[in-house]
Amino acid sequence: MQANELTARSYIITLKPLTPIHVWSGQNLVVGVDLLHLGGGRYCLVDFEGLSQHIDVTKVISMRIEELPKLLESLKDGLPCLRELKAYEVLPSGTSPTSVQELNRYVIPGSTLKGYIRTAILYSLLSRRNANEVRKILESGIDFQKDPKHLSEGLEACFFRAPRPRRMGFVDAFQSLLVSDPTLELDPDCYRIARIEVCELPDGNTIASQYAVVVQCGKLTYKVDVLKSLENGRARISKAAPEHEDDLKKLQLLSHEDLLRALRDFGCYILLRELERVRGCSKLGGYTALLEEFLKVYCRGSSNCVIARIGFGAGVYSKTVIGLMKQVAQDLYALVKNVMEIGLGHTWDEKTVKLTRTERGSVGLGWCELCLS
């Protein structure tokens, strides 16, 4: 069977960063070891696999970690760089090494985009219901006995999952959605080391900061396939094994969903919520103006391109349907907020925004354009 015989719909999705985006690799880079200052705002991301041609590795292994930065600094003119990165400011150095969050090797992997699509479709399915229905679904889908990170699994299961008979696990609608990792078209200048500031609303005062490698321009291209449902065999399968009827319904869900509409509705919803949060803060006037531009371009017309928000610092609205909960079930929202804060050990609310410096001033992270073809 040919691959195209299994596919109901295929898309090419191109993603273009509109503000700096960071998806963490899970590793941190250390200034003076992984990142060497080349002068000004330029840094070498050291290629350690290529070090053997430039340095006696046995000597390095025998050194104390505190001595390594001085050795690398003395050799930096001849060291191999995986990439040269620019920063808007010289990073702090000294007795307490500065840590920089490393960018994912795929920049924004296919799994991250698939997760965003999942949330967009969940939002789309919920927003079609009236307030009472949404409240009942939310109340039945939240399990406060679970780990905070898995609090809403029941809510997703309501729309996307069905238990297979005879304790054979679950079927999930998103088994039908395949998202490739991207091909990258990024110039070297698209990569930057950014200082990410956590600013308190509504005053805009900085209360914390950290560094991360971000991507701020270029294009990422993904192949997205929606696999065919078993329409031809459904009647036969349902008659022979009626217990599989719910499985089949879940697997057919995505073939009936309008992906572009779901992404547009969700992206514009996130955009409006962010505008509500930052509008009126005098220190964020430039960021507010940028969001207003996005609103005109992506939410007051129809095209194959939509606004989206992905990655670190994108906020809870882009990763959950907490905004709908806040609208229709304030008491449930308060409970969820309390459980999340206790479980995660930090404030979980809308009182802060993560910003980074660009040529247009300080802006929020994660905004991007998705175009479907």
Structure characterization notes:
The structure is a single chain. The chain has 373 residues and is an alpha+beta fold. Helices cover 34% and strands 28% of the residues. The protein contains eleven helices and 17 strands. Strands 2, 3, 4, 5, 6, 11, 12, 15 and 16 form a nine-stranded mixed beta sheet that branches. Strands 1, 9, 10, 13, 14 and 17 form a six-stranded antiparallel beta sheet that branches. The relative contact order is 0.18.
Question: Could you say which structural class the secondary elements and strand pairing correspond to?
Answer: alpha+beta
C-alpha-based Rg, rounded: 24 Å
Tell me, what's the shape? globular
Sequence of secondary-structure elements: EEEEHHEEHHHEEEEEEEHHHHEHHEEE
Number of strands: 17
Please outline the helices and strands.
Blueprint: E1 7-17, E2 24-30, E3 35-39, E4 42-46, H1 57-62, H2 68-75, E5 81-87, E6 99-103, H3 110-127, H4 131-141, H5 153-160, E7 161-163, E8 170-172, E9 177-179, E10 183-185, E11 191-200, E12 205-215, E13 219-227, H6 231-240, H7 245-252, H8 259-278, H9 285-298, E14 305-309, H10 322-328, H11 330-344, E15 352-358, E16 361-364, E17 367-372
Parallel strand pairs: 5-11, 6-12
Antiparallel strand pairs: 1-13, 1-17, 2-6, 3-4, 4-5, 7-8, 9-13, 10-13, 11-12, 11-15, 14-17, 15-16
